[in-house]
Amino acid sequence: MSKPDTQPPDFKHDLTAVVPHLRAFARGLCGRADLADDLVQDALLRAWAARDRFVPGTSIRAWTFTILRNAWFTEMRRNRFRADYDEAQADRILTTPAAQEAPLHLADLSRALMELPAERREALLLVGAGGFSYEEAAAICGCAVGTIKSRVGRGRAQLSAMIEEGRLPTRGNASESSRALMAELDRITPKD
Amino acid sequence: MSRKQKPVDGILSSDFASDGPASNPSADQDAAPPKKQSEGEEAPPWAAPLRDLYQQVVEEPLPDFLSDLLSRLDRESE
Fold first, then answer.
1. What ranges in B1-78 are assigned the alpha helix state H?
2. How many structural domains does chain A have?
């Protein structure tokens, strides 16, 4: 694959255009607005540094999402997110709905998402919220299309079961959600 | 800089909506796709809120530090 010597002016424009989507994906991944934006900042710096490797005409959104999710898992491995985890702050984020239409519903869903294993949450965010095809999501996650389909299906089933069985995390049991998040961080952080 | 982006197209495709739950929740690493359900299956009740959750963040103003970073990249590229 040939690499351009310089990026066209569109690169910066296109990179800027995907930032809101990167923020939305990052927010869904880590469940914290502050960490999500730190993650976006990292991803932007990495994308800018690697801009010569971007192939014009391909999806900059998929390219930057790949960078962001790789940055996320790298940070998880470095334990940075765990070290920065503030349970009280997380509780506020997990329990405070925005003053917008149907806030409780969205807040409930946000908490429920954090109950999912990271891989399923990531797959649902990419396909169900981000509008990526299974093929694109698989490329972003570096796995097979069938694996993404499996993760989406299982994440979907898990979320639906939580709703149907009335097991959605609520404000009252947000600390349980926080514990689930910490358990997840423990699970996906490799033991050194 | 425009702070609002176009909504994502095809956020919940019929393919996603028709993709049924898996029968083996412990085999996440398996590449086998979950069992398909009927074509006319309705989207789950959380599907639209999931899109809303995402879109809500997309439509938020960028925090200053990210706007500043983008500006710095601009200057660097000149």
1. 14-17, 47-58, 64-77
2. 2
